[in-house]
Amino acid sequence: MNFDPLYQPYPSRRLPAYARKGMVATSQPLAAQAGLDILKAGGNAIDAAVATAAALTVLEPAFNGIGGDAFALVWTNGELHGLNASGPAPASLSIDALKERGIEEMPKYGVVPITVPGAPSAWAELSRRFGRLPFEQTLAPAVRYAEEGYPVPASLAYFWNRAYRIFGSRLSGEVHAEWFRTFAPNGHAPKAGEMWSSPHHAASLREIGRTDAESFYRGELAAKIADHLSEYGGFLTSEDLAVYRPEWVKPVSARYRDYEVWEMPPNGQGMIALMALNILDGFAAGEKDSVPTLHRQLEAMKLAFADGEAYIADSKHMRMSVEGLLSREYAEERRKLISDEAALPGPGTPPSDGTVYLAAADGEGNMVSFIQSNYMGFGSGIVVPGTGIALQNRGHSFSMDPRHDNALAPGKRSYHTIIPGFLTRGGEAVGPFGVMGGFMQPQGHVQLVMNTIDFDLNPQAALDSPRWMWENGKSVQVEPDFPIHLAQALMRKGHEIKVATDKGVFGRGQIIWRDPASGVLCGGTETRTDGSIAAW
User: Which residues form a coiled coil (predicted)?
Assistant: First the structure.
């Protein structure tokens, strides 16, 4: 594990950060500072993660919100725990129910694709089980920023304005009016440096903190959500909210070299990263930024996505087992399909048995990998009046094909894009990592893991390395600073390489590694956005 700030094969915009007592890494400086404040107030890494996550709903509303989902990997007392706080489809939402309304494809926006939000339950559950400070205290920084306001940073202003233009052209009517009143109060998206506040958002966060999130699921906030959606023909009801609970799950892993890479089990797409790494583990490490290495990465990624898109769903509805998909024997079969030319793989037959990310660590060895999202930026375009709560549109991920594992069904969780990652070695924690950004996420995980383990890059250098992103078929996007000679060589192997004009599609990541001997923390944060590390 390389902590050397000077070892990197290309220019970097930033050096890694070091600390001993605590560290919070995320995409927004004020949110990272909120988590650090909680650490200094006597909280642990779990308290800091909750504080940061809640603050991000205010400080990066273009990527997440109170009405979204969340997942967490928590290392404490020598053990890794997984929390799935993704919500299911409402009990009345089904393929037949949509077809009765003349809906043949799940819409992106509006009241129909809204599923039960899980994020508030994640905060409360993490605080209850592992936190040290009162839950209400951990949410206080988020309440303060929502109430007093803050100057919008440059990259957030860009994405906020882009979302405003999209919503302005596609969303209309009173059902969406509250979104525009909340997020474009002056008739436009906030500009860089412009103050934005949301008193309703502050009141909702205060209510969630005061009631340990009970109000959101079985109280006043739940009633406001259900009543508003009922007025416009939505499917989500107070009963759907009342029965919801987040689920503690056993994380899944793949061995890569002499490390263990951990992800959440399905319904998340973290399995895709593990399947790709299983395939790549059968090859020698190779050289970074070499054509053979990049070609194998792309081909392994395509094979893993083919299986993931065919088989990953709510674990209760999967035909293929997690164990079968992650078996070394199956990885060997898939590895044999990689040749010297770009291919168009389909799924195999295994044995039948917009988003925010944060990493937090404290001086006691506790570490958290946490991710939450409303999906597609602001989500459904629905904001519940008087609450500031923007609701997610995760239902859009369901298939309308009843034969598909991920087919829409009442009470079922959809295939989920947001995935936290964690790395261990010999049963000891190395640390949390993640890359947000839709279907880029497992691809980012694979690239970060290989940059760290195979190419010995420090956390910041691992993040700064130019990225690629497989789209579909043989189409691959690369960043503008991706070496042109490598892009040309990959094209000669049949890959259809496109140089992206928008670096936002390549995700935004964070890493914190811990030295097992000294306890020193080494962190990297994304230079593709307003990434920041707050350290103590």
Answer: none
- Spatial neighbors of 227 by CB under 8 A, at least 6 apart, are none
Number of independent structural domains in the chain: 1
SS percent in the chain: helix, strand, coil, step 5: 40, 20, 40
Q: Per residue in 382-407, pLDDT tens? A: 999 999 999 999 999 999 999 998 99
In a domain, 345, yes or no: no
Domain extent at residue 51: 21-248+356-397
Query: Tokens standing for 212?
Result: 């340990």
Q: Which residues are 455's β-sheet partners?
A: none
Beta strands in 374-438 (DSSP E): 383-384, 389-390, 421-425, 428-436
Inside any domain, residue 281? no
User: Looking at 76, 115, 293, 355, which residue is catalytic?
Assistant: 355
Strands (E), 217-258: 247-249, 252-256
Q: Report how far residue 43's alpha carbon sits from residue 30's, in angstroms, rounded to the nearest whole number.
A: 18
Concatenated DSSP letters of 460-525: HHHHHS--EEEEETTEEEE-TTS-HHHHHHHHHTT-EEEE-S-GGGG-EEEEEEE-TTT--EEEEE
Task: Say whether 57 is catalytic.
Answer: no
Span 246-262, pLDDT tens digits: 999 999 999 999 999 99
Q: Is residue 169 part of a domain?
A: yes
Taking the CA atoms of 197, 198, 199 and 204 in sequence, report the sign of the dihedral they define.
Answer: negative
pTM (two decimals): 0.94
Provide the 8-state DSSP code for 109: S
Domain assignment present for 195:
yes
As a whole number of angstroms, the distance between CA 434 and CA 227 comes to 36
